[in-house]
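Hey all, quick one. A colleague (J.T.) asked me to put the iron/sulfur cluster job into the tracker so the inputs and the structure tokens live in one place instead of scattered across chat threads. No bug as far as I know, just bookkeeping. Sequence used:
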Amino acid sequence: MCRNGDIMIVRKPHYYDEFRCTASKCSDNCCRGGWLIELDKKTEDYYRSLGGSIGRRITDSLITDEDGDTCFRLADGQCPHLDAEGLCSICVSLGEEHMGVVCREFPRYSLTYVQNGTEVTEHGVGLACEAAEALILFDEGKLCITDTGTEETEEAGEQNNCEEADTCEKIGDSEETDAGMLLAARADIINILEDRTRPVKSRISDVLEYAVSLQEKINEEPEEYELETSGDAADNCILLFDIYDGLEQLNSSWEEWSSLVRQTIFEEDGFMKLTDELCSIIPDYELLMENLMKYFIFRYYMKAVWDCNQLDKVKFAAACCLIIRQMLAALAGKQNGGVTREDIIKLVRVFSRQVEYSEDNVEAVCEEFLFGDELSAGNLRNMF
Ligand code: SF4
């Protein structure tokens, strides 16, 4: 990894720098997300060194969760430091620089890997925040990813709340080859997704096929069952929901959504009827699906530098789009068709908070793709 003074590349999508937290104007403040908010050691030490009433107020609110991490104890499902105006009282009294890393960074995420001997950190903003969703979901432009060279300093290194990629020995002869090959493939996939001369379902289908073919080259053996189809699309969709339902519950409204979707799928012709009608019911459905796929691909595809399995990242992206699509279908059924952009933003946020903010949840879904033939790329393609 980089030493002090080395050059590193910061890579980000065009919308990243446009993100602004709307704080007290936010309708679904992340501090009310119902999740335990983790505190990093450096900030915890600072709070414990403070003393006085503010130091006591903060340290009295700290607990240790089941993984041994220090977190803020929730009060009525929200962070105890959220004030009546919807602002963080720690930020107001001590300044943003004294907020914990998780609080300061949300909804930003980052991923670090090595490309041609240079450390690259990719940054993005996630769909668990309405301000970020507004930037991502209905953006009509193409995804523009920019690189900036920065000098690594000790401080920047310390502040990086990122994941570091291991060498993937199976692909090529060095990790540089791996990252370069995966980056070229990610660009190809995004190009396929942005070909608006064709329906989005055909584009997603082509992306799945592309990923199967690339995985065959990487593994140097055929992915025998991946493009085959089996079973009924509605049954396979229920199976997909079973997997997401089995994840750690991070969002209290997930259960309600899941049961609404199941009712819709089991109604007579519910799955195919609503699926076919969605293009006309949902505002900018094609654009929405394209942007969702691009978001999941940008965020997760490069994680293949760890395990050489880019196919499961593409299948994960397609599965997430399918789950969101079924949530939209269920909502359209419940509201007799009237689905607004605000409804979409709310619903995507429920999904993101349930699935994306636990590394274990994301990994658990990807593992199912490795071992479950029912969720072959062919079956996922068949569900669109
Ligand atoms: S959810 Fe987003 S906009 Fe709302 S308070 Fe959190 S970071 Fe700010």
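Adding what we noticed when we looked at it: The first helix runs from residue 41 to 50. The pocket of iron/sulfur cluster is lined by residues 21-23, 26, 29-30, 106-107, 129-131 (CB under 6 Å).
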